[in-house]
Specification:
alpha/beta, Rossmann fold, DNA polymerase, domain 1, 7-stranded mixed sheet, 13 helices, 7 strands, binds S-adenosylmethionine
Amino acid sequence: MHVPVLLKEVLKYLEPKANQNFIDATVGDGGHAKEILKLTTPFGMFMAIDRDADSIIRARADLEKFGKRVLFINDSFGNILNIVQKNKIRSVSGILFDFGMSSSQLENSGRGFSFQKDEILDMRYDVKTPITAEDIINNYGETELAEIFKKWGEEPKARLIAKAIVTERKKKRIKTTGELVKIIVSKKRFGRIHPATLIFQALRIEVNQELSEIEKMLKAIPEILDKDGRAAFISFHSLEDRMIKNWARNLNKKNLIEIITKHPITASAEELKNNPRSRSAKLRIIKMA
Ligand SMILES: C[S@@+](CC[C@H](N)C(=O)[O-])C[C@H]1O[C@@H](n2cnc3c(N)ncnc32)[C@H](O)[C@@H]1O
């Protein structure tokens, strides 16, 4: 079961109130959504978006008791403007983005998100996405592989690992996470984090084009939110956080938004103890001017 990160802080800064409309653009297992819905009762409408159809199934089950107030949408938040316009949601008081993957996806999807399990190398949130992690590992050139490992994973052994992958795939197509982990471990020592952590992160970002979806979504935010409407962004990767920070500074300079969190909010000592996923979480909040 996925434990929502920075829940108290998200509620404090998003300030959901009775009858306001909200969007959770990464609804996952519905952890944050459920609490927002309680606060926007009795008539606040709620749009629950997720790119993964299985997440939508889980969220639907979890949020069933809120009935017709919730609209479920299986799409990427990169298409948020289109989604909002198509569904004729006129007023939006707040929107939440909790990037990356959920514990349910990591542990139970069978799609190869975890280096702790031997599964197919897929890593797509949306199974309609054209490219899988297996395609990337077996088809990208050595330089291209090294580049994505460096860019999305900040992996110091990017070149060495890319080279080892290309050598191995000449013998036999690499099809499972287990096979990939074996190659990585042959080139990297165990340290504070598992040697495959950064490569898996980079592959997931590349498969799902995660940063370009964020870029598309950021452009749409000012068109979606009401005046005084708030957006909350929880990121787990320095590149994501930097994108949000720079976007917010830019709009703030033009007096289009107010930055509510001058510095990103991180998990309390208590949350860190109970939820290891909160370790790298950074929350930023903006308000429309
Ligand atoms: C960290 S989980 C969200 C957990 C949720 N806040 C909760 O409390 O249960 C992130 C979710 O975002 C979804 N996701 C990732 N990229 C997305 C995108 N571009 N558009 C929509 N959903 C996306 C994933 O499928 C995953 O279910």
